[in-house]
Input
Amino acid sequence: MKVLEVNNLSKSFGTLEVIKDISFDVEKGQVISIIGPSGSGKSTLLRCINQLERVSGGTIKICGLDMITGYEKGKPAYAEPKTLREIKLKMGLIFQNFNLFPHFSVLKNITDAQIHVLKRSKEEAEEIAMDLLRQMGLPEKADAYPYQLSGGQQQRVSIARALALNPEILFFDEPTSALDPELTGEILKVIRQLAAKSMTMVIVTHEMAFARDVADTVIFMDQGVIVEQGPAEQVINNPTSERTKLFLNRFEN
Output
């Protein structure tokens, strides 16, 4: 089953074309890593899929639901608000910088959307939140506030918050870029555990060894296009494109 279908996607900011004719699919349980230099369009791609940016062209389908229904005067026409909300609930996005509510406790950060969006009872939401905090190794932090947590702990809370809404697919935008190497290991371990449970994920990352070891497929982007995609080990260890080779030469595999 295809959880995500992206076809001929493009995004421009004025005259600057940031994404050009991007197409790829994600099957249920698949893990895809997107790699590439800064400014290659990776984060913009995730933002377009998650409805944080409006696309300039192409189509996106989540779990069979069309985000783009057609074109009006040459511009993409989005689905009705009800459908867009339904699509949003099928996705979770974990940002680089955690994006936790600073004035909410850890527990409230994880329960708030459950209560107000999914209409769960406070008791059920808190039970789910505590179960997720245990999975993240943070049950004792339920009453803490984000400023009292390390970066790695904040990122684990943001992952728990996304998982609490039972998404069909998780997107990670450079989840370790704001962390030092020791804390990076914490987050990569959590993502590995999710992959072992067959969580469908798209991960923008600069951790090449992690991309090779955890992802089923790696996509290399540069200047807004997909230069190369294929099985993770093949793309990381034996890329066919000279541009991919040049990029990967900067990393020790």
